[in-house]
Amino acid sequence: MYITKLLFLSMLCIGIKTVHAQKSGKNNKTRLSKFPLFNVSHLNYSNAKVDVDEHSFKYRTEEYNVKLQTAIPLKSRKTYLFNSLSYVYSKYFSEFNQHSDALHRFHTLNYNVGIIRMLPKYWTFSVNLSPILSSDFKDKINSDDFRYNVSVMAQKRANEYFEYGIGLGYASYVSYVEGGFVVPFFSMTYKNNRNTTRMIFPSFIHQSYAINPNTDLGFRIAMNGSLKNMAGFDNSGNLDLNRISESGVLIGPDLQKKVWGDFYLNVNCGVSVSNRIQFQDNSLKKEMEVDAHQKFYFGIGLVLLK
Known about the structure:
This protein is mainly beta. 5% of the residues lie in helices and 69% in strands. The protein contains 2 helices and 16 strands. The chain has helices at 2-5, 10-19, and strands at residues 36-45, 48-52, 55-75, 79-97, 100-119, 123-135, 146-157, 162-174, 179-192, 195-201, 204-212, 215-229, 243-260, 263-280, 286-292, 295-305. The longest helix is centred in the N-terminal third of the chain and has 10 residues, at 10-19. It is globular.
């Protein structure tokens, strides 16, 4: 299904939008969103049941995330070099029966480098490259551990309340098509008084309301996806499990509260629906694909905004 393939480009699209938070036009000095220089967060999911033929098992995941990013001016008010580096530590807990439990750990490093160019009439153009390394590191690093995303985007600051953009993203590997995948996307930010709407279609939409200058309450719908290489995964059958991809749609509220200086506390929770897991064999072909029941999530983090 087409919409399922888009899950694996959601984080790419969100990262692209973050780049543009650093810029401001000459007649639009106030940026519509602040630029996150650093954030650290923890995300925890509840147990989800998975039905396989006449059998079932439960699994749950945890994620720890650290991210640094900056935009360096190469030419004042004209050209910027964008850099970001993130590390995600993931843990999968699975229960195949009452006497068989498994724990699997993954490490993901994502480096994003891009060029942002300011154009006449408040347009901005950017090109981004994101190499990604994701593995359990139980074997030597090889080509199966790597993938990359590429994107181009043009964005316009229409007025002091509104900006929009269009772009094209490419992922080198999407498990549901077993190869590369290209998707167009549209971004929008609209801020009026206390209300702010941010959207990256088709992967993300967020509506927030400023309760006071230091506190925002919001609600989001976001696609979520991952692809990880592994040496092997404990399972109850004779399956060749070499890669795992997971996707879903997160729905729920979030809260952002200023705690000190430019540091903000982020809290989010909700439910993950349309969850799907796919395992690939050593030839990177689909070995097994299953739907998982809905699960709940809770996240907390600290972010530095400038």
